[in-house]
Design goal:
Strand content: 15-25%
Largest sheet: 5 strands, antiparallel
Strand order of the largest sheet: 1-2-3-5-4
Number of domains: 1
Structural class: alpha+beta
Shape: globular
Order of helices and strands: HHEHEEHHEEH
Number of strands: 5
Length: 152
């Protein structure tokens, strides 16, 4: 009987140890689903880390997880990029890459759709620990708050 209880106790402890290792962070794909449903967005999903390199020059090895969606309308791009970097140095690299893209978007709006330039200027690249985001969309500040709330 004692062996049975010892075995059960050992199994419970093993399960507890592994339960504590589950993911460690927030699921950014779930956060993106929440953003899409809350703000009625219908954007094209970037599916793998190589897409981050292609569109944003982000080193795939710097990324722990991400969710990114874009509407590549040539005159008025809408982009939401949520990244959890592997460490603080990687987060700095991601922030720099997304900052470069944000500046490019501002120039693009200024040239082609200046009536929406104020909307873009209300949006920004944001970094919180190892989490970095680029949000350029109507309701950008509200979307950013949804993201920030999800990672706390």
């Amino acid at each position: 009987m004692k062996r049975f209880f010892a075995l059960v106790l050992a199994a419970v402890m093993a399960v507890s140890v592994f339960a504590g290792c589950g993911g460690g962070g927030k699921d950014l794909k779930e956060t993106m689903k929440t953003i899409n449903s809350t703000y009625s967005l219908s954007l094209k999903e970037l599916e793998n880390k190589d897409d981050l390199k292609k569109y944003y020059s982000i080193n795939p090895d710097s990324v722990k997880q991400f969710a990114a969606e874009i509407d590549s309308n040539n005159n008025a791009p809408v982009e939401i990029v949520l990244v959890e970097a592997k460490d603080s140095a990687a987060a700095d690299e991601v922030e720099k890459a997304l900052g470069g893209r944000y500046n490019s978007i501002i120039s693009q709006y200024a040239s082609y759709t200046p009536e929406k330039l104020d909307m873009v200027k209300a949006c920004k690249v944001s970094k919180d620990g190892n989490y970095v985001s680029l949000i350029v969309a109507e309701n950008g500040p509200e979307i950013l708050k949804t993201f920030q709330d999800s990672i706390k």
